[in-house]
Amino acid sequence: MRDWNVVARVGDRAYQEAHRAVGELAPVAWTDYFNGLVMRVPEVRAFAEDLLVLWEADPNLSRVLGRVTPLERLFHFQSPAELEARAKGAVTPWLETLAGTRFYVRMHRRGFKARIASPEVERLLDRWIQERVAEGGPSAEVDFADPDWIVDLETVAQRGWVACWGRIERARYPFLNLD
Question: Nearest 5 degrees, angle CA 147-CA 62-CA 32?
Protein backbone atom coordinates (compact mmCIF):
# COMPACT_ATOMS: atom_id res chain seq x y z
CA MET A 1 0.00 0.00 0.00
CA ARG A 2 1.62 3.21 -1.13
CA ASP A 3 -0.49 6.07 0.17
CA TRP A 4 -1.43 4.91 3.64
CA ASN A 5 -2.70 7.42 6.18
CA VAL A 6 -3.19 5.21 9.23
CA VAL A 7 -0.40 3.34 10.97
CA ALA A 8 -0.90 0.75 13.71
CA ARG A 9 1.25 -1.28 16.04
CA VAL A 10 -0.06 -4.81 16.38
CA GLY A 11 0.19 -6.83 19.59
CA ASP A 12 2.47 -9.86 19.61
CA ARG A 13 1.04 -12.76 17.61
CA ALA A 14 -2.16 -10.84 16.89
CA TYR A 15 -1.80 -10.17 13.15
CA GLN A 16 -4.87 -12.11 12.05
CA GLU A 17 -7.05 -10.62 14.79
CA ALA A 18 -5.84 -7.13 13.94
CA HIS A 19 -6.48 -7.65 10.25
CA ARG A 20 -10.00 -8.87 10.95
CA ALA A 21 -10.76 -6.03 13.38
CA VAL A 22 -9.66 -3.06 11.29
CA GLY A 23 -10.10 -4.72 7.91
CA GLU A 24 -13.81 -4.01 8.31
CA LEU A 25 -13.05 -0.30 8.20
CA ALA A 26 -10.44 -0.03 5.44
CA PRO A 27 -7.96 -2.00 3.34
CA VAL A 28 -5.02 -3.20 5.45
CA ALA A 29 -1.41 -3.90 4.45
CA TRP A 30 1.46 -5.21 6.52
CA THR A 31 4.71 -3.29 6.61
CA ASP A 32 8.16 -4.81 6.37
CA TYR A 33 8.70 -3.66 9.96
CA PHE A 34 7.97 -5.55 13.17
CA ASN A 35 4.34 -5.48 14.34
CA GLY A 36 3.30 -2.79 11.89
CA LEU A 37 0.37 -2.36 9.57
CA VAL A 38 -0.89 0.52 7.47
CA MET A 39 -4.26 1.44 6.03
CA ARG A 40 -5.74 3.96 3.63
CA VAL A 41 -8.93 5.67 4.75
CA PRO A 42 -10.87 8.39 2.92
CA GLU A 43 -11.25 10.64 6.00
CA VAL A 44 -9.05 10.21 9.07
CA ARG A 45 -11.36 11.86 11.61
CA ALA A 46 -14.33 9.75 10.47
CA PHE A 47 -12.12 6.66 10.68
CA ALA A 48 -11.17 7.58 14.26
CA GLU A 49 -14.87 7.71 15.17
CA ASP A 50 -15.56 4.37 13.47
CA LEU A 51 -12.60 2.75 15.24
CA LEU A 52 -13.79 4.18 18.56
CA VAL A 53 -17.10 2.33 18.13
CA LEU A 54 -15.22 -0.95 17.55
CA TRP A 55 -12.80 -0.23 20.40
CA GLU A 56 -15.62 0.34 22.89
CA ALA A 57 -17.52 -2.75 21.69
CA ASP A 58 -14.52 -5.11 21.96
CA PRO A 59 -12.38 -4.81 25.12
CA ASN A 60 -9.90 -7.29 23.56
CA LEU A 61 -9.03 -4.80 20.79
CA SER A 62 -6.60 -2.92 23.03
CA ARG A 63 -4.52 -6.14 23.28
CA VAL A 64 -4.66 -6.74 19.54
CA LEU A 65 -3.81 -3.15 18.54
CA GLY A 66 -1.29 -1.41 20.75
CA ARG A 67 -1.58 1.89 18.96
CA VAL A 68 -3.52 3.18 15.96
CA THR A 69 -2.79 6.62 14.58
CA PRO A 70 -4.73 8.28 11.77
CA LEU A 71 -2.54 10.89 10.05
CA GLU A 72 -3.25 13.92 7.89
CA ARG A 73 -0.29 15.23 5.89
CA LEU A 74 1.93 13.04 3.71
CA PHE A 75 5.47 13.68 2.57
CA HIS A 76 8.22 11.59 0.98
CA PHE A 77 11.92 11.77 1.79
CA GLN A 78 15.19 10.12 0.75
CA SER A 79 17.58 11.30 3.47
CA PRO A 80 17.55 12.47 7.09
CA ALA A 81 17.98 16.09 5.95
CA GLU A 82 15.05 15.77 3.56
CA LEU A 83 12.93 14.21 6.33
CA GLU A 84 13.57 17.23 8.54
CA ALA A 85 12.78 19.73 5.78
CA ARG A 86 9.63 17.94 4.63
CA ALA A 87 8.39 17.42 8.19
CA LYS A 88 8.74 21.15 8.82
CA GLY A 89 6.68 21.86 5.73
CA ALA A 90 4.01 19.37 6.81
CA VAL A 91 3.79 20.91 10.30
CA THR A 92 3.66 24.54 9.08
CA PRO A 93 -0.17 24.68 8.74
CA TRP A 94 -0.48 23.98 12.50
CA LEU A 95 1.84 26.77 13.66
CA GLU A 96 -1.05 29.15 14.28
CA THR A 97 -2.88 26.45 16.26
CA LEU A 98 0.21 25.81 18.40
CA ALA A 99 0.78 29.50 19.22
CA GLY A 100 0.27 30.20 22.91
CA THR A 101 -0.03 26.51 23.82
CA ARG A 102 1.97 23.68 25.35
CA PHE A 103 2.99 20.94 22.91
CA TYR A 104 5.62 18.42 21.95
CA VAL A 105 6.59 16.39 18.89
CA ARG A 106 6.56 12.58 19.08
CA MET A 107 8.15 10.57 16.29
CA HIS A 108 7.58 6.86 15.59
CA ARG A 109 10.07 5.68 12.99
CA ARG A 110 10.10 2.49 10.96
CA GLY A 111 13.13 2.24 8.72
CA PHE A 112 16.30 4.32 8.33
CA LYS A 113 17.77 2.50 11.33
CA ALA A 114 21.07 4.07 12.43
CA ARG A 115 20.45 6.99 10.03
CA ILE A 116 17.63 8.79 11.82
CA ALA A 117 17.42 9.21 15.59
CA SER A 118 13.83 9.89 16.60
CA PRO A 119 14.73 11.93 19.73
CA GLU A 120 16.96 14.21 17.66
CA VAL A 121 14.23 14.83 15.09
CA GLU A 122 11.71 15.47 17.87
CA ARG A 123 13.98 18.05 19.54
CA LEU A 124 14.77 19.71 16.21
CA LEU A 125 11.07 20.07 15.35
CA ASP A 126 10.19 21.21 18.89
CA ARG A 127 12.76 24.02 18.63
CA TRP A 128 11.78 24.90 15.07
CA ILE A 129 8.08 25.14 16.00
CA GLN A 130 8.91 27.34 18.99
CA GLU A 131 11.06 29.65 16.86
CA ARG A 132 8.50 29.92 14.05
CA VAL A 133 5.57 30.52 16.41
CA ALA A 134 7.49 33.20 18.33
CA GLU A 135 8.03 35.13 15.07
CA GLY A 136 4.31 35.73 14.67
CA GLY A 137 2.75 35.92 18.11
CA PRO A 138 2.46 34.21 21.47
CA SER A 139 5.15 31.66 22.15
CA ALA A 140 4.64 27.92 22.36
CA GLU A 141 6.14 25.89 25.19
CA VAL A 142 7.42 22.32 25.00
CA ASP A 143 5.66 20.42 27.80
CA PHE A 144 5.75 16.63 28.12
CA ALA A 145 3.73 16.48 31.34
CA ASP A 146 0.54 18.28 30.28
CA PRO A 147 0.58 19.26 26.58
CA ASP A 148 -2.35 20.90 24.85
CA TRP A 149 -1.18 19.37 21.57
CA ILE A 150 0.99 16.48 20.45
CA VAL A 151 2.41 16.62 16.94
CA ASP A 152 2.71 13.01 15.78
CA LEU A 153 5.29 12.20 13.11
CA GLU A 154 5.18 8.66 11.72
CA THR A 155 7.52 7.19 9.12
CA VAL A 156 7.53 3.90 7.27
CA ALA A 157 10.58 3.62 5.01
CA GLN A 158 10.67 6.85 2.93
CA ARG A 159 7.12 7.99 3.60
CA GLY A 160 6.14 10.23 6.45
CA TRP A 161 2.86 11.53 7.79
CA VAL A 162 2.02 14.01 10.50
CA ALA A 163 -1.05 14.78 12.58
CA CYS A 164 -1.69 17.18 15.41
CA TRP A 165 -3.82 15.82 18.27
CA GLY A 166 -5.37 18.04 20.92
CA ARG A 167 -6.10 17.19 24.52
CA ILE A 168 -9.81 16.47 23.90
CA GLU A 169 -9.09 14.12 20.98
CA ARG A 170 -6.40 12.26 22.92
CA ALA A 171 -8.86 11.68 25.75
CA ARG A 172 -11.58 10.60 23.32
CA TYR A 173 -9.47 8.14 21.29
CA PRO A 174 -7.69 5.73 23.65
CA PHE A 175 -6.05 3.92 20.71
CA LEU A 176 -3.81 6.89 19.84
CA ASN A 177 -1.25 6.08 22.57
CA LEU A 178 1.09 8.78 21.31
CA ASP A 179 3.68 8.48 24.07
Answer: 90
Q: Measured at the alpha carbon of residue 140, what is the angle toward residues 136 and 141, in degrees to the nearest 5?
A: 155
Which of 121, 29, 7, 12 minimizes the C-alpha distance to 63?
Answer: 12
Contact 85, 132 (CB under 8 A): no
pTM, to two decimals: 0.86
Q: Which residues of the chain have pLDDT under 50?
A: none
- Beta strands 73-76; 102-110: pairing state: unpaired
Report DSSP letters for 129-156, one per residue: HHHHHHHHSS--EE-SSS-SEEEEEEEE
